[in-house]
């Protein structure tokens, strides 16, 4: 009983962290002027993917864990749940692939980047990723291509029918499907991304050497600052890729191993460990952004504290109140007006100093 309660608390906390963290990423990009760049559209797409995972998949997976694998919502809803899970995982890996391509274009051709990476092209790329992910997630399971006998899985039981020993909702596969799916949706994109980031680091190192050699010292700071900003963004996103590999690689190795052995009932403990390790990546990304990127750190700080907004609101309220006093004839002499004018000036000065300090920190 105690272990179940602890498990329940941990799973709920994990789901809340995943949802809250990815909502924070979306708000940070939407409210911060420094983060409102075309390249961060892919970051928002990745955060939306993780957010949907936290809202649609993790609660059902946690319910399966707490009920020892028993599923009472019927076979059709089980298939939808599995399809959405596969779709979101596929969307994550291909969004990371798009991010690596975007970073390569930004580093290798900074002068032509704005011409090559335009809002319509980014929207087309994101739409294509989601369309492809839906196809990979829904079509094989709906057509029965993933099962050993090529029949649609979990279609023989209705909602509330748990059978004598309890029915479980699991992802069935045959060995050919497991190999093909893992290669096309994980290992191939992963190899491309690793090659892309290796190329990025080579180009970045060469650019830094050329800038130091060719730029006069009195104008070097601006060029170095712009290049450094792109390189730091690339390092942040490379760390996100590294976290994705660490979290999801064990699951796909296990997935291929079970497929090769034609195991239809994999060990529940090992499956739960590698699956939740993969899910952990969705909660980890919102932590990596502020840890490695100062712009995200500032945006998070402003969203969580809202100190600047409160300061300006208080100053504006005090000013409006004093103006109303003027219009109502409550200021009787010039001395009182000067006193209020000075006070208002000091409040505005204090608010400006707070803004400056937040930009420096």
Describe the overall structure.
Residues 21-289 form the G-protein coupled receptors family 1 profile domain. Belongs to the G-protein coupled receptor 1 family. It is a multi-pass membrane protein. It is found in: Cell membrane. This protein has 361 residues and is mainly alpha-helical. It has 2 domains: 2-195 and 230-305, Rhopdopsin 7-helix transmembrane proteins (Up-down Bundle), CATH 1.20.1070.10; 307-360. 79% of the residues lie in helices and 0% in strands. The protein has 11 helices and no strands. α1 packs across α9 (294-305).
Brief account:
Its main location: membrane. With 361 residues, this protein is mainly alpha-helical.
Features:
single chain, 361 residues, mainly alpha, Rhopdopsin 7-helix transmembrane proteins, 2 domains, 11 helices, 79% helix
């Amino acid at each position: 009983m105690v272990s179940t309660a602890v498990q329940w608390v941990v799973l709920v906390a994990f789901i809340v962290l995943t949802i809250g963290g990815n909502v924070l990423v979306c708000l940070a990009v939407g409210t911060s002027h420094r983060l409102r760049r075309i390249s961060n559209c892919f970051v928002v797409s990745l955060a939306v993917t993780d957010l949907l995972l936290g809202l649609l998949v993790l609660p059902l997976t946690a319910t399966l864990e707490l009920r020892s694998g028993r599923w009472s919502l019927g076979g059709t809803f089980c298939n939808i749940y599995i399809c959405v899970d596969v779709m979101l995982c596929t969307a994550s890996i291909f969004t990371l692939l798009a991010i690596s391509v975007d970073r390569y274009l930004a580093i290798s051709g900074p002068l032509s980047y704005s011409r090559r990476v335009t809002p319509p092209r980014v929207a087309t790329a994101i739409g294509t990723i989601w369309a492809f992910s839906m196809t990979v997630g829904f079509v094989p399971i709906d057509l029965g291509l993933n099962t050993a006998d090529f029949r649609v899985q979990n279609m023989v039981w209705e909602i509330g029918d748990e059978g004598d020993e309890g029915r479980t909702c699991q992802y069935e596969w045959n060995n050919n499907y497991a190999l093909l799916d893992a290669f096309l949706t994980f290992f191939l994109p992963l190899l491309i991304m690793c090659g892309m980031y290796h190329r990025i680091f080579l180009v970045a190192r060469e650019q830094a050497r050329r800038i130091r050699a060719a730029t006069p010292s009195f104008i070097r700071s601006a060029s170095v600052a712009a290049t450094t900003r792109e390189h730091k963004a690339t390092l942040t996103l490379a760390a996100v890729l590294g976290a994705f590999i660490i979290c999801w690689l064990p699951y796909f190795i296990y997935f291929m191993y079970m497929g090769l052995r034609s195991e239809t009932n994999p060990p529940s403990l090992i499956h739960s460990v590698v699956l939740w390790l993969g899910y952990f990546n969705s909660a980890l990304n919102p932590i990596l952004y502020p840890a490695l990127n100062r712009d995200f750190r500032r945006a998070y700080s402003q969203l969580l504290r809202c100190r600047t907004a409160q300061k300006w609101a208080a100053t504006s309220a005090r000013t409006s109140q004093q103006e109303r006093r003027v219009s109502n004839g409550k200021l009787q002499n010039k001395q009182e007006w000067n006193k209020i004018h000075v006070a208002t000036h000091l409040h505005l000065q204090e608010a400006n100093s707070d803004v400056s300090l937040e930009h420096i920190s």
